[in-house]
């Protein structure tokens, strides 16, 4: 499995002091089998959530591309209690994902 971390997640994680933990998480997932991410994230369809201190790392469910390697997209890091996380994400993760993760954002 390959883990793609968005530039925004990297920037926000470094600013909040949690980048090292996310980088270690990426390594662990990539070195494990293709379903190992389910051991590190909680499902919140269509996304997956990883609690890191007072933050929530949001991942988009893995997709397999032409090379048949599943890719887990680390798409956002949100502060617990922030309006983008609660109630916006928690109330309707499907709508939140549609608003925030178009194909063009994923491919950039």
List the helices and strands and how they pair.
Layout: E1 2-5, H1 7-16, H2 19-31, H3 37-40, E2 42-44, E3 47-52, E4 55-64, E5 70-79, H4 84-91, H5 93-100, H6 103-107
Parallel strand pairs: 1-5
Antiparallel strand pairs: 2-3, 3-4, 4-5
Helix pairs in contact: 4-5
Explain this structure:
This protein is 44% helix and 31% strand. With 108 residues, the chain is an alpha+beta fold. It has one domain (2-92): RelE-like (YaeB-like fold, 2-Layer Sandwich). Strands 1-5-4-3-2 form a 5-stranded mixed beta sheet, sandwiched between helices. α4 (84-91) crosses α5 (93-100). The longest helix is centred in the first third of the chain and has 13 residues, at 19-31. The protein is globular. Mean pLDDT is 85; it is low at 103-108.
What is the gist of this entry?
Helices cover 44% and strands 31% of the residues.
What is the second-level CATH architecture? 2-Layer Sandwich
Name of the CATH superfamily: RelE-like
SS-based class: alpha+beta
Strand order of the largest sheet: 1-5-4-3-2
Query: How is the biggest beta sheet arranged?
Result: 5 strands, mixed
CATH class categorisation: Alpha Beta
């Amino acid at each position: 499995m390959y883990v793609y971390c968005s530039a925004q997640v990297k920037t926000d994680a470094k600013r909040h002091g949690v980048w090292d933990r996310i980088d270690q998480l990426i390594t662990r997932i990539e070195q494990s089998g293709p379903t190992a991410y389910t051991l590190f994230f909680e499902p919140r369809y269509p996304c997956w959530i990883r609690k890191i201190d007072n933050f929530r790392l949001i991942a988009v469910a893995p997709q397999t591309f032409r090379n048949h390697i599943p890719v887990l997209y680390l798409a956002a890091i949100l502060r617990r209690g922030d309006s983008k996380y609660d109630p916006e994400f928690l109330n309707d993760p499907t709508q939140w994902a549609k608003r925030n993760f178009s194909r063009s954002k994923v491919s950039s």
